[in-house]
Structure formats: C-alpha cells, structure tokens
Amino acid sequence: MELTSLLYEVDQGIAVITLNRPQALNALNGTLMRELSILLDEVAGNKMVKVVIITGSGEKAFAAGADIAEMQTMTALEGREWGKLGQETFTKLEKLPQPVIAAVNGFALGGGCELAMACDIRIAVDKAKFGQPEVSLGIPPGFGGTQRLPRLIGRGRALELLLTGDMIAAPEAFRLGLVNRVVSPADLMAETKKMAQTIMKRGNIAVNITKAAVHRGMETDLVTGLAYEAEVFGLCFATQDQREGMAAFLEKRKADFTGK
Length: 260
Ligand code: CO8
Hints:
By secondary structure, the chain is an alpha/beta fold. The protein has 11 helices and 10 strands.
C-alpha cells in the first residue's frame, strides 16, 4: 500500500507510525484514517514488530482532531460511517497484540486525544495540549472520547473536560493521569524509544498477554477478568520464556528471551 498521509518505518523491532499532514496540524481525514486502518492490519501480523510508537509530524501537533473541513458538510449517514471508521480503527489499535506508545509532540485535540487514549502509554512534550473540544463545534466526541476518557481518568474529571471543551496543558494532563510522562521536545523520541526498548527486553509473550489481560479486564467484571488472568498465567508455563526468565533469575544472570 502506498501511504500518502502516514509515514511508517520498522527499525530493530520498533514500528514508528507518523501522522503526516503537518499543514493541517495532522488533522485526521478519511484518507489518513483508511490508511491507518490498513496499516494496523499489517502491523498486527508483522512478527518483527515488538512495540509500536505513534507520533505526529512537525513541531506543533500530534493531531488537532478529525478534519473539520471534511466533516462540515457531512450528512447524518456519512457522520455515522465516519464515527464507525474512527471507532473501529482506534479499537483495532487498542487491540494490537504489541504495546503501543503515543509520543505526543504537540496538540492532541478531539480525535487526536482519542487516538492517544487508544494507545497503551502516553508520553507528551511539555508544550502539548489535550482536550475534547467537540462540544464547541456542536457535536459530541465520536471516536471513543466519551468512553475512554472516563475509563482513563475517572468520570468527574472526564466530564469536566468533555463538557467544557477546554484544553489542558501537558503537566495538568499528567496530574490527571491522562499522560504517563512529560518530557522536553528534544527528548521525546529518545525517551519513547528507551521505554520501547525496556519493554522489548522482557518476555515478549508475557508482555503481549499482559496487555491483552488488562484490556480484557477493563471490559468486564472483576471475577471474569481474574479468571482470564488465571488462564493466561497458566498458559505462560508452556513457554520457553518462562523457563528462561526464572532460570536466569536463579542463576543471577540476565534472561535471554526468545519469544517462544
Ligand atoms: N481540521 C481541519 N483543519 C485543521 C484542524 C482540524 N481539526 N485543526 C487545524 N487545522 C488547520 C487550520 O484550519 C489551519 O489551516 P490553514 O493554514 O489552511 O488555515 C492549519 O491547520 C493551522 O491551524 P491554525 O491556524 O488554527 O493554528 P493555530 O496555532 O492558530 O491554532 C489550534 C491551533 C488551537 C489547534 C486550532 O487549529 C484548533 O482549534 N483546531 C481545531 C481543534 C478542534 O476543534 N479539534 C476537534 C475536531 S472535532 C473531532 O476531532 C471529532 C472527532 C470525532 C468525530 C466523529 C464524528 C462522528
């Protein structure tokens, strides 16, 4: 597939997907979202990819939302299709077997904030701004914001952001738990890759299973979630990584995981 609105590279186990419409602050239009959806299928099946990083091109924005120019004249049916495309794509992202880190290099608004929330971990530059300004445009969030924001930061805090449409700066987003870490722009990619490399050093099967267990558990009740955890915990005892990880600890050496 030829990509026109995304950049994609895989280097030493880390896939970097870059939203690449800097002239429109990486606003998410139909072309970009369709490309992202197809690309995620390739990433999901690519055994070389251990961790995924999503970022935006340019210095200003991660993504300033869904493309308002494209949405302005949509009919109700087109709006529904658009919402479905966004939701399905972000859910596909959330359900990728590999961990996904958002490297938030600037504005993450509306669909941009929703995209960051569909990632597993968020690292943001100090000047990044977050928000769900949809109500200022006369629409509710439509790419998962009403669902993922309260799950991430709690109902009261989420409702304040969702109902006022106000933007918050990265340090406040950190305080609310919307971002994991705040760094300087110069350090963003290095810090994000460092975290990716730390994850890659761990048992790959255990990492992927842990991610899946957290997401499964968040969608269900505690008893069902715990039952799932017990199953996958047991399953890991069929892996070489479990043998190697425990042997390495007892032999006081670093584990050499093979992902088998
Ligand atoms: N869509 C389209 N174009 C955009 C968008 C956007 N979301 N954001 C910025 N741009 C464009 C601007 O129009 C401008 O283009 P041009 O140079 O041709 O005039 C260019 O990017 C640069 O932007 P600004 O000149 O506005 O830059 P500023 O530094 O002055 O302001 C802001 C930066 C504050 C980020 C400002 O651009 C802004 O407020 N953007 C819109 C933010 C917003 O409201 N986002 C939410 C969009 S709605 C949404 O995401 C809903 C998702 C789910 C929909 C589901 C429907 C079913």
